[in-house]
Amino acid sequence: MPLNILRGIKPVVVILVSLLFLALYSSGDNDKKKISKPAGININDAYRLEINRVKLPLNNRGVIANVSVDGTPEGGFFDGIGFLWSSGFMLSGKNRDTIWSNAVASASRLEDYLPGEVGGTDDPRALLYVVNSGDEPFGVSWQEWKDAVDLGAYFYDGDDNGIYNPIDKNGDGKWNPDEDMPDILGDETIWCVYNDALPLEDRGFFNVSPMGIEIRQTVWAYADSNYLGNIIFVRYSINNAGTVAEVFDSVYFGAWADSDLGTYYDDLAGCDTTIDAGFIYNNGPDGDYGVNPPSFI
Questions:
Q1: Cα-flanking dihedrals φ and ψ of residue 37, to 5°?
Q2: Does residue 242 register a pLDDT over 60?
Q3: Which of 119, 148, 247, 261 is most buried by a 10 A CB count?
Q4: Where residue 265 falls among pLDDT bands split at 50, 70, 90?
Q5: In the prediction, which pLDDT does 41 show?
Q6: What is the rounded CA–CA span in Å between residue 98 and residue 155?
Q7: CB 277 within 8 Å of CB 21
Q8: CA end-to-end span of the chain, whole Å?
Q9: Distance (Å, rounded) from C-alpha 225 to C-alpha 235?
Q10: Residues whose CB falls within 8 Å of the CB of residue 145, separated by 6 or more in sequence, listed in order
């Protein structure tokens, strides 16, 4: 879909199911209360989400699935069988009359983003932040979220003062609606920020310079044995920092995926334009999934 990206943030949500890759768009994010962030201790540059039937590694440069964490296999897995080799996005638009493009599509050798905010690629805080619904209120992960908020993460502003300060004001050892908390969207939430600062000479689109675009990415999932256990959600908040232009027009954002649904050579692809969804399915029984293979949306 075409967008005009003024200086500021546009949110895009992508849903990954063991059968799903659905992109949605909404606006007005700057008017929402801030809520967002990690679980546990800062996770450095890579993390493996394993809270439900979908196992999905990711890094702090926007690559999803095509990441090895502590020697674990690369790729996304559903019930222990691969369904996704790599995932990310492609973004293109116009700066006046000049067309530009950038992407995170590792299987296509396109990785144009580096960790951190625009102008802050050397920031040691540009990590993956993880927070779980069961984390101790006001504990370590909630305090770490302060760094994430400084980098642009959302949070729930319980006292409505615009400042993230996760303290137990009521002294009862539990969170109350008038107290701040991270942007906990599911049972596990992972947040990071990255920007298109890869130097011109290293980019796949070799004639496109960095455009001052920053992506604030939130990934979340639910510990569920029913349909939510098959789903992972990805939210991209796209920020034009204004270092190149105040407005980019005719901007297109596209979710990108290199899927390997079991044995990849029998994969087929389709789309449903009425719901803006693409899907992958098998041409009959699959060598890994057997006679009843899943689909991937």
A1: 150, -170
A2: yes
A3: 148
A4: confident
A5: 35
A6: 37
A7: yes
A8: 18
A9: 23
A10: 36, 37, 38, 129, 131, 153, 155, 164, 166, 182
Q: Please state, in angstroms and rounded to a whole number, the distance separating the CA atoms of residues 41 and 131.
A: 8
Distance (Å, whole) CA 32 – CA 253: 22
- The answer on pLDDT for 33 being more than 90 is no
% of the chain beyond a pLDDT of 70: 85
Alpha carbons 95 and 98: distance in angstroms, whole number: 5
Tokens found for residue 50: 């394993």
> Mean per-residue pLDDT for 96-121?
92
Q: Are 282 and 268 in contact (CB under 8 A)?
A: yes
Whether the Cβ atoms of residue 207 and residue 176 lie closer than 8 Å to each other? no
The per-residue pLDDT for range 267-278, each reduced to its tens digit, is 999 988 898 888
* CA distance linking residue 30 with residue 62, whole number of Å: 22
Among all chains, which residue has been given the structure tokens 């050397």?
122
Residue-averaged pLDDT of the chain? 85
Residue 116 corresponds to which tokens in the numbers above?
A: 């951190």
Task: Read off the pLDDT of residues 156-202 as tens digits, 9 standing for 90 and up.
Answer: 999 999 999 999 999 999 999 999 999 999 999 999 999 999 998 89
Distance CA 222, CA 263 (A): 27
Residue 204 CB neighbours (<10 A) = 15
CA distance 100 to 78: 36
Q: Which among 153, 130, 131 has a CA at the least distance from the CA of 44? A: 130
Which residue, 42, 31, 25, is CA-closest to 8? 31
Q: How far apart are CA 97 and CA 113, in angstroms?
A: 23
Phi and psi for 229 in degrees, rounded to 5?
A: -75, -5
Amino acid at 281: Y
Closest Cα partner for 115 from 55, 63, 68, 69? 63
* Residue type at 236 in one-letter notation: Y
- Residues 229-240 pLDDT 10s: 899 999 999 999
Q: Which of 13, 10, 72 is nearest to 220 (CA)?
A: 13
